[in-house]
Fold:
Amino acid sequence: MNTKKLAAFLLASAMAVPAAGCSLEEIIDNYNAQYNPPVDHVPRTTVSESEASVYVEDASAVFNHITYKQEMFYGKYIADGTVNTEMNDEAKAQFIADQNTFTMNGSHGKLTVMPYRVDIGPHCNVTPLNYLSGYNWALLYFYDAQGNSIQVQSAYTIDGNSMRMQLIKDFDYNSEAGTLDYQFSGDVLKYYYILTTDGLELSNSEGKVLLRCEDLAGEDPQVNVFDANLTEGSTKLDGIDTINLTAEEQYVMVDGTKCPVTGYELSEDGLFKLKWTTNGIPHAVQTAYLYGDDDGISLMDGEHFYLYNRRSNDLYTKKVNTNVSVSDSENLQSLSNDEITALEGKVDQLYNDLEAAFAEAGVDATINRETGEISLNSVVLFAVDDYFISGEGQYLLMNFLKAYTSVIFDDKYKDFVTSIEIQGHTDPTGLADHNQVLSQARANQVKDFCLSPDGGLDAIRIGKLEPMLTAVGYAATHPIFAADGEVDLDASRRVSFRFMVDIGANAQ
Structure:
């Protein structure tokens, strides 16, 4: 505000106050209206049904009937009164006073049950944990009883209208060594959710909180959809590959052609309106939307999802990361899209060949392509609370090893598999220290059996396998969950094989 101009305006206006009957507040309002007209930061765009290739009239009807996907939760969400990563003093005091609390195992004192901020998505929640495949991560902000902000990473899953947050106790990333050590706390928070343009509402028997989209909250909404590319498996919206809506530039990429945006709006009633031209021909769409902040935007019309959540050079290619070391994950950005696709295809084919080999050999092994685990039930391999492999377990391992090595050592995959981690897992019952020792001992026993003549492999295969194998005990830090969100104790007791591949190998 120009203070000299305001002073002159007030002086002139004050002399007229008795005649006009205006208060000082009204005078200031009149000045602001004259010299500081309101700025409309969100472009207003009208799209008619007749001109739109995709048209949604009522966004709420779409939200009431869709089945939500993981990418649709991407974004940064804050409670009222939050600025950046802290609430203002008044809002904080009220938030803490209204909250029930819980105690997180091993790390913190009592924390508010509800978070006051949540960041979801690989670019909204930038963390080395994103290099781990099989998980979707959310950063939760809580307050403790003293008003300290506590940040907790959580692996989240969606089941119907509920979210399950599996909390991380701690993790350590060594960028030079390319290693990432992490441990779940054992705590699982369960929330019911409502996700709309208004934001993310979380609730359970302990309370409720509404978290609004950070960029769209307040009086000055700022839309910033940058380099938002179509997610694999998503329906393409009227030929659009990429959406870019920033203060500097607004365009869409349509089948490789850059097309200028002539109007757009993310309206408060949940409608995304977009107009653009291709070779002078006008186009328009109107859909329901969920704003993903640094992770793009999700669009839907009730029948199809149009998910634009991926950057051009995105590190977090889940299929590849599943079987790529943490150090190699950082190097994925050096690969082209064609190289990534070829690598994904080769990993998929390797899994297909392993499934066929196990089926032919009659081996009961569970393949989880999301986590990269190929699991054998430890109940078959070991007696209760023991780490010596049973006779039945030895027979299972012999058949497994013959089928497994026949595939990974096939000429088709020459030098493709670089290392194999044998993982020991327990269920969460029992003492943590005991479970750690037991899981490590079981992994060691399986490794030793694989490299011994008793494992049934010839000397050539043993020689190839020996430098590739490591054994790690994870105790109960990687439990398996049933559909109801509870830990599946039987499935959690397992020994797993997880292979890593060379991203520089010929993936054609």
Remarks:
- The chain has a mean pLDDT of 86.
